[in-house]
Amino acid sequence: MPAVDATDARLVQALSEDPRASVLALSQKLGLARNTVQARLARLESSGALAPYEHRVRPEALGYRLSAYVTVLVVQRSLSDVGEALSHIPEVLEVTALSGVADLLVRVVARDADDLWRITEQVLAIPGVQRTDTALALRRLVEHRVAPLLERAAGTE
């Protein structure tokens, strides 16, 4: 993934402020040529520097009011197979490999406690999963954010 320079950071900041801004509006706001803005946006999108649009949809709006983090202990040689199997469970939002006691941190959503039980049973049924531990997310105190890093990269902090 290519590095995001100060101009890219300013562009992403402007998009964050107005996600529906046109390329022309962004170019005027940033004092850049329209083609420059268009090329930079295309590069940021194709390189994976910009997350998919679906990240903006909150699971709660889809009826998934319960959020939990599941740590998973895995038979070591099964790590990639377990990751692949987890990707087929729709309620699994992300899976992160960890160092330490647990092997994976799995963020899941559920409609209610019974639904969380069903999802946990699915995870436990995956070959290679040895044990799970589930912690309910009670409240998010700091939302996912990158704005302070963008400000630093843009030189506007």
TrEMBL record:
Keyword Transcription regulation: yes
SMART domains tied to this protein: HTH_ASNC (SM00344)
GO annotation terms (biological process): response to amino acid
SUPFAM superfamilies: Dimeric alpha+beta barrel, Winged helix' DNA-binding domain
GO cellular component labels: cytosol
Pfam families for the chain: AsnC_trans_reg (PF01037), HTH_AsnC-type (PF13404)
GO function term, MF aspect, one: sequence-specific DNA binding
Domain HTH asnC-type residue range list: 4-65
Keywords: DNA-binding, Transcription, Transcription regulation
Source organism superkingdom: Bacteria
PANTHER family for this protein: LEUCINE-RESPONSIVE REGULATORY PROTEIN (PTHR30154), TRANSCRIPTIONAL REGULATOR AZLB (PTHR30154:SF34)
Protein name as catalogued: Transcriptional regulator, AsnC family
